[in-house]
Design a protein that fits this description.
The chain is mainly alpha-helical. It has two domains: 4-52, no CATH class; 58-120, no CATH class. The protein is built from seven helices and three strands; from the N terminus they run βααββααααα. It has helices at 8-15, 22-29, 41-51, 60-66, 76-83, 87-98, 104-114; strands at 4-7, 31-33, 36-39. Strands 1-3-2 form a three-stranded antiparallel sheet. Strand 2 (31-33) and strand 3 (36-39) form a beta hairpin. Helix 5 (76-83) packs antiparallel against helix 7. The chain is elongated, with a radius of gyration of 21 Å. The relative contact order is 0.12.
Length: 121
């Protein structure tokens, strides 16, 4: 596969939506020729992996859930827990009925870790 070319202006615009250091990393990895930078496919893959916002790599269901987040939610797990009807009441009922935890708290923490809201990190 051959190298890909981008204008420096398009890289500057993209950098506004990416993690800090994106523009500098593109310049470091690429070959600058005037107002164009040439990148190998491997460099493009690296940049996508390291500088694409995490939310853009989430499965669709997690993105949809994140659209209903509240300001205090730390991640997708908090949003789901808040939306479940009778969250704390359900946990208590489940424990008293079945004699064991429903696993909601652990699942909530796991989902928060896997799909955190970046602006809180």
């Amino acid at each position: 596969m051959s190298a890909v070319r981008y204008t420096l202006e398009s890289i500057r615009r993209a950098a506004q939506k990416r993690a800090v250091g994106y523009y500098e990393e593109v310049i470091r990895r690429g070959t600058v020729m005037g107002d164009v930078v040439e990148l190998t496919p491997e460099d493009c893959d690296y940049l996508k992996e390291h500088f694409t916002p995490a939310e853009n790599r989430w499965p669709l269901w997690a993105v949809v859930v994140s659209k209903t987040r509240a300001p205090q939610d730390r991640g997708v797990g908090d949003t789901i827990a808040r939306q479940i009807i009778g969250g704390a009441t359900f946990k208590t009922w489940f424990k008293s009925t079945f004699g064991m935890s429903c696993g909601c708290t652990e699942r909530q923490g796991s989902l928060n870790q896997k799909y955190p809201y970046a602006d809180l990190l």
